[in-house]
Specification:
Length: 507
């Protein structure tokens, strides 16, 4: 028997909680970062619910995976496996059942994500529901895990036009997104008093041109509209509870917590084409959840449509960077840690800036950092699921600015924090290359740079690594012209800042 990682203790105190994993296409990799933060906060649940893309993460949890294992699986998954083509003769017929078939999902994506149907069907510790659209009856069906099979999970992900509908026991099933993208009422019926909704469907005011963006808009309108109707229903229930005439007997009013991106996530084509990577989505999810957990009210959120409002997706920037160098455990100063025969530490980092214009104009705005730390004394490489990146931030030293790279990770179940900074000095020397490629690094015990220093060293970026970095630069949320504009803007900013630094000493 499998036990769900988030299962509440049988005699646990506190409200009955439900975790709702809403849809969002392949971008539901973002939810893995949220789950990491919820796990770190010690939250546990009595009921789990998934709809559309969220059913993938639900199936992973019920297969016994931890959030850290889920994040690893999403990072390693080949997204091309989501798309598999129909036989050629089907396309030649002219009347296609869909643009592709489900072979890639069943043969590669499900195993790649660690979904095991025997474990899923026998998972203990929580109740759960998978939401499907019964197209034959035009109804929503909440399916118990004991009844799930690979074909039904395929049906939960089968958006019309993109994947064929699934025939099951004389009925036709598809993705439930057009009816609901999260089934709050099912959790309420099962006694949930506190709902935790992980929502990554867009809700912005901008109506975009183009067939695919407008198809996405239809899903957004349907998903948000159905959610808002459920909020009205729960608000009415809470009023009845207060009056003492609840249809469910004596219980507490239902509270709602929603974790969502502040800015709409890049759409699936950007994810599929590598303009944004799973590790970046996971890092964004972790930050969104951490921010919400830090600021949340015990009373939850008001049951109004504004709970899913986001700002528009803006052209961003992503790239991958590898820095390595001598690093010693026990050292507290980077120079001392890099001396002698210190073993090499390599940091393979993915940088993601969600809104490039804001990042360049606001010195306090952070980019997301994620990646892998490869260090012999640690054994196997360690994944760091979240961190921060900042350019040209003020430093304590006069005439100096820092380029900040920080990664949080776990080693032997304990939190650690790798804090690095490049020192850009306003001096007349011809050392800008060294300034911008040398990372002075300290390792801290705990979840931030305030913890005890337990290691230090100096990492650097070589010419070969720089060439590789340039080949990884991508601009999500942008067409071809916008991509060129964004790259030019970033290059002009970066080189301009370096020139301004040097020019101050030219008289």
């Amino acid at each position: 028997m499998t036990r769900c990682h988030f299962a509440a203790a049988p005699s646990g105190q506190g409200p009955r909680r439900a975790l709702l994993l809403a849809g969002g296409g392949m971008r539901v990799a973002w939810q893995a970062g949220v789950l990491l933060a919820l796990d770190e906060a010690g939250l546990r649940f009595h009921h789990l619910d998934g709809a559309s893309g969220g059913t993938l993460n639900l199936a992973m949890l019920l297969s016994g995976l931890s959030p850290a294992e889920m994040a690893h699986r999403w990072r390693a998954l080949d997204l091309k496996d989501f798309i598999s083509l129909l036989p050629l003769e089907d396309y030649l017929k002219g009347a296609w059942p869909a643009m592709g078939d489900a072979d890639g999902l069943k043969d590669k994506v499900f195993p790649g994500l660690g979904i095991d149907f025997d474990s899923l069907r026998t998972c203990e510790g929580v109740s759960a529901t998978f939401n499907l659209c019964n197209f034959t009856r035009k109804t929503l069906e909440a399916v118990d895990p004991t009844a799930m099979a690979p074909d039904l999970l395929v049906a939960a992900l089968s958006l019309p036009a993109f994947m064929p509908a699934v025939s099951w026991k004389g009925m036709t099933y598809t993705d439930a997104a057009w009816i609901k993208d999260a089934n709050l009422w099912e959790s309420v019926k099962r006694g949930a008093e506190e709902l935790w909704l992980l929502w990554c469907i867009g809700n912005t005011p901008t109506y975009r041109d183009g067939a695919f963006p407008q198809y996405v808009h239809m899903i957004e309108m349907s998903a948000n509209g159905a959610l808002f109707e459920e909020l009205d229903r729960i608000r009415d229930l809470n009023e009845r509870i207060q009056r003492g005439d609840s249809p469910f007997g004596q219980r507490q009013p239902v509270r709602l917590h929603v974790i969502k991106p502040t800015q709409a996530l890049p759409l699936d084509p950007d994810f599929y084409l590598g303009r944004v990577r799973a590790e970046s989505l996971i890092a964004l999810g972790h930050r969104a959840a951490t921010d919400y957990l830090n600021d949340r009210s015990p009373a939850g959120l008001p049951l109004t449509p504004e709970i899913t409002t986001m700002t528009d997706a803006a052209p961003g920037l992503s790239f991958r960077e590898t820095m390595d160098g001598p690093f010693s455990l026990g050292a507290t100063d980077p120079g001392a840690g890099a001396a002698g025969d210190a073993p090499t530490l390599a940091m393979h980092a993915t940088v993601f800036v969600q809104d490039l214009d804001r990042f360049l104009s606001d010195p306090t705005h952070l980019g997301s950092l994620s990646g892998t730390i490869d260090y012999g004394p640690f054994g196997a490489p360690i994944e760091a699921h979240h961190g921060v990146f900042r350019l040209f931030s003020p430093a304590d030293e006069p005439d100096t600015r820092h380029m900040v790279y920080e990664l949080a990770f776990e080693k032997d179940g304990e939190p650690h924090y790798l804090a690095g900074h490049k020192v850009v000095r306003q001096d007349p020397g011809f050392d800008l290359w060294k300034d911008t490629t040398t990372l002075y690094t300290t390792l801290h015990r705990g979840s931030d740079a305030r913890g005890e220093i337990i290691g230090a060293g100096i990492l650097s970026l070589g010419v070969t690594d720089l060439i590789r970095l340039l080949g990884t630069v991508e601009v999500p949320n942008a067409g071809p012209a916008q991509r060129m504009e964004a790259l030019a803007k970033f290059g002009k900013f970066f080189m301009g800042e370096l020139w301004n630094t040097y020019a101050k000493h030219l008289g």
